[in-house]
Design a protein that fits this description.
Mean pLDDT: 96
Largest sheet: 7 strands, mixed
Order of helices and strands: EEEEEEEEEEE
Shape: globular
Radius of gyration: 13 Å
Structural class: mainly beta
Number of helices: 0
Strand content: over 45%
């Protein structure tokens, strides 16, 4: 059983940067792909970014390409989401997730964190 804990959210102005972290524990000897999803108020949860176990493969939602970067440090069991040039429409609860495959579909990720709030003011 994998436990995931996110941190790093907060309230920032448009154009600012934030770095989210997600620490994994339990079952981390298995090579999981890690992803970030987000859910804005009144909207369904959506894919943001995913990274392979080795860290060489990444994929991003079109809405964040060129602004967000996903990375991981397996020695620290941690995945990061560097968010630059934040926009008000990036406001959401951000969740990290672990799964067997580096895909964009939520159903393929059995393990989820509790989420961290990111609020971007205009």
């Amino acid at each position: 059983q994998v436990q995931l804990v996110e941190s790093g959210g907060g309230l920032v102005q448009a154009g600012a940067s934030l770095r989210l972290s997600c620490v994994a524990s339990g079952g981390t000897d298995v090579g999981y792909a890690m992803a970030w999803f987000r859910q804005a108020p009144g909207k369904e949860r959506e894919f943001v970014a995913v990274i392979t176990w080795g860290g060489r493969g990444t994929s991003y939602a079109d809405s964040v390409k060129g602004r967000f970067t996903i990375s991981r440090d397996n020695a620290k069991n941690t995945v990061y989401l560097q968010m630059n040039s934040l926009k008000p429409e990036d406001t959401a609860v951000y969740y990290c997730a672990a799964g067997a495959r580096p895909v964009e579909t939520q159903v393929d990720f059995p393990y989820w964190g509790q989420g961290t709030q990111v609020t971007v003011s205009s």
